[in-house]
Design a protein that fits this description.
The complex is a heterodimer of chains A (444) and B (119).
Chain A: E1 10-12, H1 16-22, H2 48-65, H3 74-83, H4 90-118, H5 121-125, H6 129-146, H7 156-162, H8 165-187, H9 192-201, H10 204-227, H11 229-234, H12 241-260, H13 267-288, H14 298-322, E2 330-331, H15 334-342, E3 347-352, H16 357-364, H17 370-379, E4 381-386, H18 393-402, E5 409-413, H19 431-443
Chain B: H1 3-25, H2 35-45, E1 48-49, H3 52-60, E2 67-70, H4 74-78, E3 86-87, H5 94-99, H6 101-108, E4 116-118
Parallel strand pairs in B: 2-3, 2-4
The chains are: A mainly alpha (444), B mainly alpha (119).
Amino acid sequence: MAVKLGYKNVHRDPLGVPAWEASGRKLCTECATLKRPAAGPLAGPLTGWTLVWTLLGVFAGGMALNLTPCVYPIIPITVSYFGGYCGAAKGRLLGHGLLYVAGLAVANTALGVMAALTGSLMGSLLQNPLVLVAVAGVLVAFAASLFGLWELRLPSSLTQAASRPYAGYFGSLFMGLTLGVVAAPCIGPFVLGLLTWVASLGSVWLGFLVFFTLSLGLGLPLFFLALFCGSLEKLPRSGEWMLWVRRLMGWVLLGMAAYFIRPLLPETVRVFLLAGVALAAAIHLGWLDRTTAAFRGFPWVKTAAALVGVVIATLLIGTWVLKGPGVTWQPYSDQALARAQAAQKPVIIDFYATWCAPCRELDEITFHYPELVKLLNREFVAVKVDLTQKGNPLYERLVQQYGVKGVPTVVFLDKTGRERADSRLVDYLPPEKLLPHLVVLSKE
Amino acid sequence: MTRKGTLFLALAVAALTLGVLWHLHRLPVVKEATMAEVQAEAARGGYRLIGTEELAKICQQPPPGFLLVDTRQAWEYQSGYIEGAVNFPMEPTWWCRWRSETPLAKLLGPDKSRLVVFY
């Protein structure tokens, strides 16, 4: 190729590195140690401007949450509830709107305070099978409502209470509270990162503040919706295509439900469930749905939605089909380690939990990379320690022994059984980055 | 857009996705060749072959403009390379050749008569 480009003095050494090494010459290695990933989110006290900026960011995030399909089912309820106040004076309407948002905020803030109180427990709690099933249940219920199978409606007692002057204020607060509780499981997964962050801060006051700000951002658009209830009725009817949008949102929620119960399912079912939802959504939204709209672009929007669904399904199934065999792990035992030492093999110990996302990523991408799998299976003894459930005395001892602070933690032992402290892994690392270190380790 | 049209479009998009996926998942091609094949290829390509000892001699006293290029994958390079080599991952596929022509020209620079060794 270089010759084609016009270079005249081109040579090739066809034997390359193996022959170079065999002749007793040395090779260069640039990176014998793994670069330590930066420490996780700063778990120090937040003060001053940092706090203000963080809260502003959280507020913006809360507003963005309104774009998620979770909030969508709440909107018609809000509108119909405040529809009852339309004739009222602006001041009264404002009061009701504020109380409504306050109720919503209290419900969501409870979540944040709980996270701060329980500490790191929250992460594992949110992966508890019962909680996952409950979250998925709420999502499916919302989706069914969006499909028009049932209508989220206010109990008539509430609407009646709202018409009385003082009970009304309480009613608005209560209303917000109820909706907050109903929507929390749906919003929770979106703010999972925020929850674990608050939990790591360990301060109840900060947990309160962060989630209160989040709810204010979340409630702001609803608040305006409440204020302008009268003019909302005058808006032109959005037409039949809105039904299609509702169905689209419904499918997104169903997809989320399938996504959240993933850890409970065996891998094959997981893949086909998600792909099935995507494909069903594509067929429903793109072909079966007969909705038409007055504007020209609508058929294209429908086609695009269908194509997105098809692509997602293909990606899921394709990745699964093309994925080669993984690393052969064995559960941890002292004997396995002793055998490795006797055979002069380095050891890789993977501390993981089923609920941890980077662990899954490591397993599905890095530990399925063909070259890496080949090397690990040939030169290493690969051991896994499942920390999903607490209480295994052997594993507790290992956590102590290796000073494991969280999952994932991947520990490397050299041929003599000593840990390579310089090459510990505490986060996802792509296979191309991990491979050189493994090669170096296996050659030592 | 007719429904049939949409269907064809969907199938085409699905096929395209699969193609891209396959491309991303495929293994780097490694050719195992005999010495005779390597020599024939060198004659066709118009470059000369060089042995380990000879290369080592050049490396010890590199002439001005000497460039050593490691054409293996990045991770192979990082796990040990001959001193002074730069990494330029290449595979013996037409797709890769076509894609890396310009970057290679940039790497080799304007001096067309410099001594270049690939391995």
